[in-house]
Structure formats: structure tokens, C-alpha cells
């Protein structure tokens, strides 16, 4: 008999948000009455299959956080997103979780149906599954350091990866360790899984699941989070 499935969410929240240029890291900004991190935690806990949330934070952000909440633990983040994710995944493994659902702290607008779809697609498949959206604009490649088009890039079958990304916890830990947490090509969990030979499934995401990156994104997410 196979072991029972146990899913923990891992939320990397140890970044500094350089592109946002705010006084505190973007995940601690308040939108519609709650911090962006809190919205993201609440979003992953909408699904009953997610038993626990491991949030990776940097040491100097600890004072911004509530002391304790049910179903939530704080773990040490790292210098790269991959290092923060690996930290959470290793804690999840220690506590006997079989699967991890990695979700950016900076994506507070995750719809419940997208979360349910990625869990369904990835849970019984070692390839796992990720949320992504088809590229909607025309793509151009420029000359290096020049604002001039060198080529058009066909956008057929091109997707922009979002989170959540769901994988077997032990396979993802192996994948990130093998690829290396400081490898610049390790931009998301799927890239690490591909590195060790897996082909994660794609699940349709949503514009509402945008990653807050630049100041103007706050206007969009304020509208999306309105109920
Ligand atoms: N992250 C993390 N540890 C890091 C870097 C990033 O946990 N060392 C987290 C961020 O907190 C964020 C998610 O990874 O929730 C996605 O990263 P990104 O949007 O790039 O956030 P930042 O790295 O904080 O922003 P920037 O790249 O603009 O500095
Ligand atoms: Mg970053």
C-alpha cells in the first residue's frame, strides 16, 4: 500500500523586494486590511488538503511577523529564492509531509479554483504540476544593450510560469540540491525538476495571481483583492 499523501505549503518570503523600492519588503505591505504575506497564507489554506504552511523569512524580518498561528511555522530563508524554498521543503520532510506546494509570498490573489486544479493535477504524478498562463503579447528579442528588435519570437506554446507549484517533497529537495541553490537557471521549482529529468504538467493560472513586483502592481492587486 502506498503511503498517505500529506501536503504542506512552502511560502518563500525572505526577499527584499528591490524592484518595489518600498520601505519594508513588499510581502509586509498592507492591502485591503491584511499584509500581502497574510493574504498569500490565507489563499493556500483555502484548500483543506493543505495541512500546514512553512514560511521562509529572513532573520531581520522576524519582528514583522505574528508570533504564532495555528497551521503556520516560520523557518529560516536564504540568500536566493531557491535556498529559501529548500529550507521550507526540508522542514516539511522532517515533519513527514510527502508533498510540497510552493507559493510565492508575493502572489496574494491566488484563486481557490486554481489552487485546487494544481493539487489535482500534480498529486498522483511524480512529474508534479505548476500554474502558468499562456504568453499574451508578441515577443521580441533585442540586440544586447540596444533598444532595437533583432528578431520576433513565436509565442506558440509559450507559457509564463506562476506559483503554486506542487511536487513530491523528496524529489524537489533532490532536484534543488542537484541543480544548486545559487544556479541562476533555477528560477522556479519546475526548472529544478526538469534538471533531473521530470516534465511538470501545466495548469491554467489567472491574471489575478500576479506576482507583486513593481509599485504599480499594488493598484491592480488592491482591485483584485476587493470583495
Ligand atoms: N524570496 C525568498 N528568498 C530570497 C529571495 C526571494 O524567499 N532570497 C521570495 C520573495 O520574498 C518572494 C518570492 O521569493 O515572495 C518571489 O521573488 P521576487 O518576486 O523576486 O521577490 P524579491 O526577490 O523580494 O524581489 P526583487 O527581485 O525585486 O528584489
Ligand atoms: Mg527576486
General description of the model:
The protein is built from 6 helices and 11 strands. The chain is α/β, with parallel strands linked by helices and 227 residues long. It has one domain (7-131, 161-224): Spore Coat Polysaccharide Biosynthesis Protein SpsA, Chain A (Alpha-Beta Complex), CATH 3.90.550. Strands 5-4-1-6-10-7-11 form a 7-stranded mixed β-sheet, with helices on both faces. A two-stranded antiparallel ribbon has the order 2-3.
Task: State the main characteristics.
single chain; alpha/beta; two-stranded antiparallel ribbon; seven-stranded mixed β-sheet; Spore Coat Polysaccharide Biosynthesis Protein SpsA, Chain A; binds magnesium ion; 227 residues; binds cytidine-5'-triphosphate; 26% helix
- Gross CATH architecture: Alpha-Beta Complex
Percent in helix? 25-40%
Low-confidence stretches: none
Taking the sheet with the most strands, its summary is: 7 strands, mixed
Give the structural class. Answer: alpha/beta
The number of distinct structural domains comes to: 1
Distance between the termini: 44 Å
Name the CATH superfamily assignment.
Answer: Spore Coat Polysaccharide Biosynthesis Protein SpsA, Chain A
Number of helices: 6
Shape: globular
Mean pLDDT, to the nearest integer, reads 95
User: What strand line-up does the widest sheet have?
Assistant: 5-4-1-6-10-7-11
**Small molecules (ligands, ions, cofactors) in the structure:** cytidine-5'-triphosphate, magnesium ion
Q: Give the C-level CATH assignment.
A: Alpha Beta
Site (Positions MEP for the nucleophilic attack): 155, 211
GO biological process, one term: isopentenyl diphosphate biosynthetic process, methylerythritol 4-phosphate pathway
Pathway: Isoprenoid biosynthesis; isopentenyl diphosphate biosynthesis via DXP pathway; isopentenyl diphosphate from 1-deoxy-D-xylulose 5-phosphate: step 2/6
Catalytic activity: 2-C-methyl-D-erythritol 4-phosphate + CTP + H(+) = 4-CDP-2-C-methyl-D-erythritol + diphosphate
Amino acid at each position: 500500500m502506498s503511503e498517505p499523501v500529506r501536503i504542506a505549503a512552502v511560502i518563500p518570503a525572505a526577499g527584499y523586494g528591490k524592484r518595489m523600492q518600498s520601505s519594508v519588503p513588499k510581502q509586509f505591505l498592507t492591502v485591503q486590511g491584511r499584509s500581502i504575506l497574510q493574504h498569500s497564507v490565507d489563499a493556500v489554506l483555502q484548500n483543506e488538503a493543505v495541512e500546514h504552511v512553512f514560511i521562509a523569512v529572513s532573520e531581520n524580518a522576524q519582528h514583522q511577523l505574528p508570533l504564532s498561528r495555528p497551521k503556520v511555522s516560520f523557518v529560516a530563508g536564504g540568500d536566493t529564492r531557491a535556498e529559501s524554498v529548500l529550507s521550507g521543503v526540508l522542514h516539511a520532510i522532517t515533519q513527514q509531509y510527502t508533498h510540497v506546494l510552493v507559493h510565492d509570498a508575493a502572489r496574494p490573489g491566488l484563486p481557490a479554483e486554481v489552487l485546487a486544479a494544481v493539487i489535482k493535477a500534480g498529486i498522483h504524478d511524480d512529474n508534479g504540476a505548476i500554474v502558468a498562463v499562456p504568453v499574451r503579447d508578441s515577443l521580441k528579442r533585442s540586440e544586447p544593450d540596444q533598444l532595437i528588435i533583432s528578431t520576433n519570437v513565436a509565442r506558440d506554446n509559450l507559457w509564463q510560469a506562476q506559483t503554486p507549484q506542487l511536487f513530491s517533497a523528496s524529489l524537489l529537495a533532490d532536484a534543488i540540491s542537484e541543480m544548486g541553490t545559487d544556479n541562476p537557471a533555477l528560477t522556479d521549482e519546475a526548472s529544478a525538476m526538469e534538471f533531473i529529468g521530470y516534465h511538470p504538467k501545466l495548469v491554467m493560472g489567472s491574471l489575478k495571481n500576479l506576482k507583486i513586483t513593481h509599485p504599480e502592481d499594488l493598484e491592480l492587486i488592491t482591485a483584485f483583492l476587493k470583495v
